[in-house]
Amino acid sequence: MEQANATPQITKLTKEEVARLCHEANRAYCLALGDESQPAWDEAPAWQKESALAGVDLHATSEDVGPEASHNAWMAQKEADGWKYGVEKDAEKKEHPCMVPFDALPVEQQAKDYIFAAIVKTAVSFVELVKPQTEAVKQQGVPVPAEPPKPTIRYIGFRDQHRDSLYGTGDWFKGQVKVVLPATYAKMLKHPDVYVDGGTEVVPDMPGAEMIGGDHDVEKKGEKDEDDTQAARDAIAAMTTKEAVADYVMANFRQKVPRTLNLENMKRQATMLIDQYGA
Length: 279
Description:
The chain has 279 residues and is mainly α. The chain has helices spanning 15-32, 46-60, 68-80, 107-127, 131-139, 182-188, 208-211, 215-238, 242-253, 263-277, and strands spanning 84-85, 95-96, 152-155, 161-164, 170-173, 177-179, 195-197. A hairpin with a 5-residue loop joins strand 4 (161-164) and strand 5 (170-173). Helix 1 (15-32) runs antiparallel to helix 4 (107-127), helix 2 (46-60) runs antiparallel to helix 3 (68-80) and helix 9 runs parallel beside helix 10. The radius of gyration is 22 Å and the shape is globular. It starts with 14 loop residues before the first helix and ends with a helix. The relative contact order is 0.10.
């Protein structure tokens, strides 16, 4: 009698399956907090599924992004749909209490993004196990479809170092090129004074010694930039009039903040610009 093949068959998880895992984990976490508003995956609206799928893409294709990237992407999508900050969630008014920078979220809300990122990265590491099967297929002469080229972005901003807090792509050196998600690529190109198409060259890690003069100088400059950025955040927080916020944004970023917003929302927009471009 023939012996059964003892080699386990490893099934590659699809993006939808990983998104479902993340969604159901988030739903269970919300239930533990007493929040029963999250539907099961099969009953979730299309926009919620699309948001989860975009989050999987975000964390599966880059090792540089942290849990704050999920929140930034979610908030950018909400803003594009007309949502704004509100003390309580109100779908009719399109107000949500989580429409604030990641660092301003309550810890229990930040935890959702940590859980999401951990599940995706764990799922991706599991999928690595199917690579030998792919190699075996190649050896048998079966053509394997080539992956489409991934879009890249080059940082050309005026600073030698830059931290992208808006799109969650991490730290950049001037001239550095990174692979980004297609949706992120399109959004970043809306800032041609900061980002341009990166072409086919990818420079994931540029040595600081060639840029500024040595690792010690890079570290000192990074600390100074962060100090300046925090000082700018504090200055915005201390402003008491809409005019002050609008004048600051126009003088430093050549952008207009809608004065129809209340003072706190104007401050939030100004702070997001500081986090994106620096002080």
